[in-house]
Design a protein that fits this description.
It is built from 2 helices and 10 strands. It has about 140 residues and is an alpha+beta fold. It has one domain: Trna Endonuclease, Chain: A, domain 1. It has a 6-stranded mixed beta sheet, with helices on both faces. It has a two-stranded antiparallel sheet with strand order 4-7. It has a two-stranded antiparallel sheet with strand order 9-10.
Amino acid sequence: MPYKNEIVFKKHHIEQLRECGYFITPVQTRTIVGVPDVYAAHTAHCLWIEYKHIDSTFSTDAVAYRIPFRPGQQRWAAELRNATRGGCEVLCAVAFRNGVYGFWMDEPYNSGLVPPKCIKPLVLNRGHIDLLRSES
């Protein structure tokens, strides 16, 4: 489903997460730089989600996709990962013209350039988010 913009995408995705049984808290702060858009929790699993909308079609043939991170977003994700030793992760959910994809913000992406091998289709199932990790 193509989305008009990031706001419409975020609203629809939050509704889907709630239908899957997630506890959702949208976050808006001007005092802490880089905090993701949403905190999500289900059973023993928690994660933060940053939403992005990109006006292009996803293809594995691309060299990289420039994700429009705001200042501090990648640093905030790295600090969370270090503080929790990977116990709580940050997911970047991206709406492309041809579907919803995502990647774990578990490494810094220079200039916001994310290679397609890191970006996977994002599927919601009852109680969890399916997003396959890249094989190393």
